Amino acid sequence: MLVRIKRINDKFNDIPLPKYTTPDSAGMDIFAAVEKPITIEPFSTELIPTNLAIELENGYECQVRSRSGLAIKNGIFALNSPGTIDSDYRGEIKIILSNFSKEPYTINRGDRIAQIVFARYEKVNLIEVEELSSTIRDSGGFGSTGK
Q: 10: number of CA atoms within 13 Å, CB side?
């Protein structure tokens, strides 16, 4: 699949486009396009620009996900992960990063800050009904199926 990608401002042309780190990676690393470092204080959230916009085919979304290394080593998470970039959005991709550690964390120009994964989706038609079919689980949730 081909995805059209655009740099928004030439002053960040030194920052790589998203890329796969290994041949079998599902997610592409995406990089911070910041002029000066941004420090995310403990238990705070910052919106980090990437200087990129994309054009997706209808029926596809781009999901933004946390980088596992940032999460386990530094407590940095993409907040609404997976976040969705819809196929009709043409604005700048920005990453919502939250710091769940007790230490400040600084994002520098060109840092790998998240992953993006492209996925197909289907539109559905909802039909309102009075009853739903019964299952063994029924309405059991949040741990109802055991440990």
A: 0
